[in-house]
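Revision sheet: structure tokens.
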Amino acid sequence: MKKILFLLAFGLFIYGAIPVNATTMDDIIDGCMEGFRETWEKSKRDDEPKLVSIEADGTLITEDVPKITNEHVKKAVDKKINEQIELIKNTLIDYQPFSEQEAQGIISTAREVFEIHSTYNYFYWNDSEVVLSGYNEAKVDTSIVRWITNFRKNQWIETYDKTISADDPSGWAYDSVMSAIENGYVPNHLQSSYRSPITREEFAELFVTAVFADFNKTLPRAFQETQDGWEFETVTIDNFLSKVATSESFTDTHNKYIKVANILGMVNGVGHRKFDPNGLITREQAAVMFMNYFQTIESTGTKIATLELDDLDEASSWAKEAVARAYGVGYLKGTRAVISKGGYIEKKGYFDTKGTFTREQAITVVSRLGKGEKDNLHFLLLRGYVKINMDLLMSGFEIEGDTVKMLNSNFDSEYSEIKQFLRMLPDLADYCNEFSTSQLNAVIITPPFAAFDRLTKHHLDKILSGKQTLYDFKIFTIEHNKNGYLAIIDKTPGYGYYSGGAPCIQYGWDNEFTINGIEVK
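Predicted:
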């Protein structure tokens, strides 16, 4: 006798196995159950029990047909629906933001998708449910605009339309905007007019607010004894500026957020000591600003952009590398997605380098960089390449261009991170009693992922002796005990972006090497 394993195939839904007059989720489940019963009746002539397998919550359930309950089927249906929802969401996101022009020749609309309402083979509309076998439905513009797609033919059909308020986030940006607000990234006065172009001043305020929000969230991880040694418990604009000074100033703005954004390396002036706070930002300028700050956090090659973007060569010479890296690492996506088939690109995507950057686009990218996604916002970086923690901030710094100078402030805390670490190394524990937290931190301060161990007796004795030293890392140098500063880190001009995140880093346009420091003197 032959054992038969009947698998629940959800393709039956697409091809009309569910009765076309089904009106509720229960009807769909009942239709599925009816299919089981028919299968069971047709196989009664066999002597052995027949098994049916369905997948629910990632578990394959194989039982006799009579034992399979509606709950099993509902879990399996829900799982498939959720998979399809994610598929549609990702597809729609790839083609955002839609314009009045045809996107890829597939989608044509003047509206952005708001959210998926329901999917697979039925949809909910105006308090009634209808079965559309083989179709998927996405709710658009808060239920006013509806899109129905037939994935088998890859065609999109607009059925309803209504203009929605420009004060609300577009549908494609809604979840990211709400998430950013919930995480404390968006200042109150920027929580409106989401589709409006963002100004340089607004961008600085958004960016700084987001970084400080996530940096402060990481502080409670430190031991209480460590926190007790800090002058303040969290970082605000004012107490940050009490510890970090800069030689840069602008004649057309005194906004403290802009000052901090410049210290962090996010934004620079436009020349002649001007910042142009009300100036608008293009998408290529946004790429530069994001890469200015996050260049050391992730390895960001440029090859993907050269393969996938149709307009990369249209970027300004000073922005081309930033556009390529921001796109390659996923900080910024194109306004038109790549069309590929079988691993080959049929039509390149479009970045829109000169297009205006809007509030919702800026908030979406910041949200993408924060909690729940890339989780990069909690890094505090001076001029975008010198990573500091709260202990280092307490020591104090001066910024001059891209040069970062660590003050000889004698900040000390018995339970600072560096002292607690050295106490775990028997040969180095005595240094905790002889030197301050600032002095010890000056030995190890360096841009991220620079491969050089200075926590040896040789280097500790040399640097802590007060004698002038020089370590050359090729794309930056570190000097100690010069001109009254504990340490001076100086970025080498002209190397381009220091793309960190790995022992072997990229700089300039896809040049690559390992950052090994050389002791010069």
